[in-house]
């Protein structure tokens, strides 16, 4: 009887895919994709091109034919991550920017953590910054969260994270609405964490998951306009989710600062422009979540 070759073992469906957003940073993106596409987990990758004019989409398709490129035709901001997650078929979504990537093995560990903790909606990774792989200061802040360590989650509960160093359960992320369109960019992660918590999903810091981040700029200086965007979005988040008295007090503080601070003035101007859209979508947090937010604001 002739020998027959054993049937090939079917490859398990990937559990984690990667969504990356970019805009007009073609060479930086291509260099990052060289790293991402060599990960041992071989994750499917979706790149959302937020309206680039430097040939980004064509360059990615030519060099990385396995990478799916989405071109919404305009700059969606952080909503580009939601756009990409909706197009990805994996149960888990790891988010990266064009200057960040995941350490080998991190995505496998993420799959294990989510499988072991069914309420986990989003895992905030530990981030190493720059060519020297220095610990991002946010790591220590998340590790010391006053919300403590809930028994059904793999790490301290948090209501914030770094957008390019997080893994989300896709269904939970989309159920929460993903990133809010009113905010665009600038500390947009806080609102998403609140919305996940409001739906019963856990958000936890998981230092076993490691992401690398090599942002442009010397000395960690923020990108131009970022400070104003962060302050704008903090105010808009207050109007979207916090009690009315809190939103009014936040507005008054920013208005007072705007008398002498140009960044505050810009933040207030931009917030006022977006305020009608925020008010139309206003949905205050459930009381238990609001109490958790206040605990973070007041400390242990």
> What class, by secondary structure content?
alpha/beta
What global shape is seen? Answer: globular
Strand runs, count? 9
Average pLDDT score? 93
Q: Which blocks of ≥5 consecutive residues have pLDDT under 50?
A: none
Outline the biggest β-sheet: 9 strands, mixed
Distance between the termini: 74 Å
| Number of helical segments with 4 or more residues | 11
Helix content: 40-55%
| Sequence of secondary-structure elements | EHEHEHEEHEEHEHHEHHHH
Over all CA atoms, what is the radius of gyration? 20 Å
Strand content is: 15-25%
Describe the protein's architecture and organization.
- The termini are far apart.
- The chain is of the alpha/beta class.
- Helix 1 (about 25-35) runs parallel beside helix 2, helix 8 (about 225-240) packs antiparallel against helix 9 (about 245-255) and helix 8 packs parallel to helix 10 (about 260-280).
- The mean pLDDT is about 95.
- Strands 1, 2, 3, 4, 5, 6, 7, 8 and 9 form a nine-stranded mixed β-sheet that branches.
- It is globular, with a radius of gyration of 20 Å.
- It has helices at about 25-35, 55-65, 80-85, 105-115, 135-145, 170-175, 190-200, 225-240, 245-255, 260-280, 285-300; strands at about 15-20, 45-50, 70, 90-95, 100, 120-130, 135, 165-170, 200-215.
